[in-house]
Amino acid sequence: MTLRTYIIRRSIVIIPTFFFISLIIFTLLHLAPGDPLRGVTFGRSKIDPEMLEELRSRWGLDQPIPVQYFIWVGRFLQGDLGYSFHNQRPVSALISERITPTLELMLAAEVLSVAIAVILGVIAAVKHYSISDALASLGALVGYSTPNFWIALMAILVFALQLRWFPTSGTITLGITFSSPFHALLDHLEHLVLPVSILVLGWTAYLFRMVRSSMLEVLGQDYITTARAKGLRERVVIYKHALRNALLPVITYEGISIGYLFGGAATIEYIFAWPGLGQFMVDYANYRDYPTLMGLSMIIAIMVLLANLSADIAYAIADPRIRYE
Question: Is the pLDDT of residue 2 over 60?
Fold first, then answer.
């Protein structure tokens, strides 16, 4: 089986899975308590009940939930995510305005977390039961047992308010005219340091434990002993033979972790006033804005499904023994 055929077959499974997920999310959103029209004022202090009923009928909220779902599916298949109840703008436009800051935050945290976790995990496994292993394991224990929102608040208190090393919120300093794009970039990177660091701290802790345990298991295999008996250098044994096999569980976890990383990013975005999808979802969840929440949920679902597909493809890259045959 070629890789192209494999992707096609997986897509046949992914498509119904996607719509099943959308059905669950759609149903839960509509069964949750709250009225999406409560926050709709159109600049007025109060809207007449007759106008509310007209809006309810215009937006299809008076229809049964199954009918509303199939109407949404029909529009989604045409590339229409609907209009926001709260500000009457296309959901696709709202998402496109905020997806770049979220991707920037998540990708930076993901790359740094994987790099740090792999390096520390390999060192801890090779030198297990040493002082470096104990210190790294202790740091990982603190990292994944401490709530990230508390760490974020403490980081703002210490590094932003007391030491004044980094800004407290936002993506760029307002009210300043930068002399060059380079200075604007430096200012943006200063705003990026704290939120990315908080995400990296928690995410690295999970990945470090996984890399360490996987490496310890692989280093005890017979083929590693054989490679050393052949006289191969220890660096070749560790990085060429052991690490590639040890990364397979990490790849699996990375494929299913996008949703968890997005949830963590939502908390951090809200605390640091980062104008991404996370903070946006929290705000519009309070509004009970069904079209916007469905559009955001489907973006996350697509990212998770594509990440799982990418993880399957990455297996063959990490381990030459795996073939789609």
Answer: no
DSSP notation for 156-167 = IIIIIIIS--S-
Q: CA 113 to CA 88: how far, in whole Å? A: 39
For residues 85-93, give the mean pLDDT: 83
Q: Which residue has the tokens 């890399």?
A: 211
Question: Two tokens at 170?
Answer: 């936002």
* CA atoms of 80 and 232, how far apart (whole Å): 58
Percent of the chain with pLDDT over 70: 88
Look-up: residue for tokens 């995400």? 199
Domains of the chain: 3-77 (no CATH), 95-318 (1.10.3720.10)
Q: Is the dihedral of CA 298, 300, 303, 305 positive or negative?
A: negative
pTM: 0.78
- The structure tokens 């976890």 sit at 253
3-state secondary structure of 316: helix
**124 touches 325 (CB < 8 A):** no
- Joined together, the tokens standing for residue 38 give 């409560």
